[in-house]
Each structure stands twice: as structure tokens, then as C-alpha cells.
Specification:
2 copies of one chain form a homodimer. Chain A has 3 helices and 9 strands. Chain A has about 130 residues and is an alpha+beta fold. The first copy, chain A, has a single domain, classed as Roll (2,3-Dihydroxybiphenyl 1,2-Dioxygenase, domain 1), CATH 3.10.180.10. In chain A, strands 1, 2, 3, 4, 5, 6, 7, 8 and 9 form a 9-stranded mixed sheet that branches.
């Protein structure tokens, strides 16, 4: 079922600083910031040869990463995103296995324009997992 | 400078349970557990098409992930590992940029038999970063 690691998302308090860390210190190819108001974040994409890192800064009062940054003021890894071929089949399999899918289980359209679901960290080794239909 | 994402390391309190989550729930290809006494962990490798996830369980009293699991009893993402072509050049560049390299800055031989260094989370968006010479 599990496909590629689509991305690792790192929440940062200061996107300009995060960009500098990845561009100047680590020497990676880093995109311009992209506001995603529907998802409450501004994103910078760090392109690696085999996957990408997404640096996320809160955007708006209801940003889903605001509480995380209050607990982790220096930033931190917020979630990992795995690709699946069929997100509804993945959801049904996970629910049958007893895992908790966040929300009402209906995939939403994610920041890449594809259906996504989030899985409960308590059921996945303490890790917030996003599934994205590839 | 930054090459492939070599792995994402997830610390888990119970490797058998973590293996079941990735094998049965998520349907991934998962290795047998491998004890790494020199590194204080037992590791299971989750093979994805483009990278791998390493599930780490503490091994021995001085395991470097024991304190992390005390703070995060359900487990959590412990570090990310990026490949670099020349670890000494990477270290010298990072130190010149003002970043903190953990330990005395001398690469150690990591669990894959290659030279590795760890970088201070405070200087890298709150994320513990391992560099491995590819």
C-alpha cells in the first residue's frame, strides 16, 4: 500500500530564517514562499534528489500549525506524507485495522491539489501521518 | 551540498508494535529487527520506493533515544538524515556559517558503516539533522 515518501513537513516560526538555513547553510535548492491560505500556511519547498522538505510558517489566526509552534517554539518536524495509489481503499483498510483517521474520513484536497487524509499520531508511532493519493 | 534524504528516524517504545503498524496497517516492506549495540538502538528498516524510514527502539541503558522517549512516550520523529558527498567539507562549511556541530566535530562511523555527524536542532529549525557521507 505505502508508496513514496512525498515530503517531510517542518514547522518553522520564521520562514525567511528557515529558507536561509536550507539555502545558505545546507546548500539546497529552495523555492520562493508560496501562501496557501486555504491550508493556513506559507510553504517553502526544499528540493532534494529523491523527495522534498516543506518548511511551513503559520498563515492566519486558525493555522493548523500554530499550536504545534507554541509547544515547539524553535520549530520541529510536524508530519510525514506518504503516497498511496487509492486513498479511499487505504482509508477503509486502516479503519478496518482499528486505526483512527482524523476528521470525518472524507479526503480533502491538499496543498498539491490531490486528495489527502491525516492519521492519528497515537496509532502511528507518535507521528502525524498524511496520506496523499499519488 | 545537500543530497538525498537517506532516512527519517522514528523512535518507538515498542519495536514489535511499530513493525506491525508499518507492515500490517500501512502495508510497507519491513526488515527484521537489527541490534546495533554500538549505537544503543535496535532498528527496523521500512523500505519505501524513494527512501527509508528507520524505526528505533532503545537498546541498553545509555541509549541515545531514551530521553527522547521519556518526553514522547508514544514515540515520534527523532531525526532526519541527509546525504552529503564530503562530510568534512560539509562540516567546515557549516561551522564557518556559525552552525553548531554536535560532539567534537569528528565524524563517527554510523549504523550504515559510513561517516556521520549530527547538527544542533536549535540551528536547524528545531530538527535534529544527521549528515551521512554518501
Amino acid at each position: 500500500m505505502l508508496g513514496r515518501l512525498n515530503h517531510v513537513a517542518i514547522a518553522v516560526p520564521d520562514l525567511a530564517r528557515g529558507t536561509e538555513v536550507y539555502r545558505s547553510m545546507l546548500g539546497a535548492t529552495v523555492s520562493a514562499p508560496q501562501a496557501e491560505p486555504a491550508h493556513g500556511v506559507t510553504v517553502v519547498f526544499v528540493e532534494l534528489p529523491n523527495t522534498k522538505i516543506e518548511l511551513l510558517e503559520p498563515l492566519g489566526e486558525n493555522s493548523p500549525i500554530r499550536a504545534f509552534l507554541e509547544k515547539n517554539p524553535a520549530g520541529g518536524i510536524h508530519h510525514v506524507c506518504y503516497e498511496v495509489a487509492d486513498i479511499l481503499a487505504a482509508r477503509d483498510h486502516l479503519k478496518a485495522e482499528g486505526a483512527r483517521v482524523l476528521g470525518d474520513g472524507t479526503p480533502k484536497i491538499g496543498a498539491h491539489g490531490k486528495p489527502v487524509l491525516f492519521l492519528h499520531p497515537k496509532d502511528f508511532c507518535g507521528t502525524l501521518v498524511e496520506l496523499e493519493q499519488a
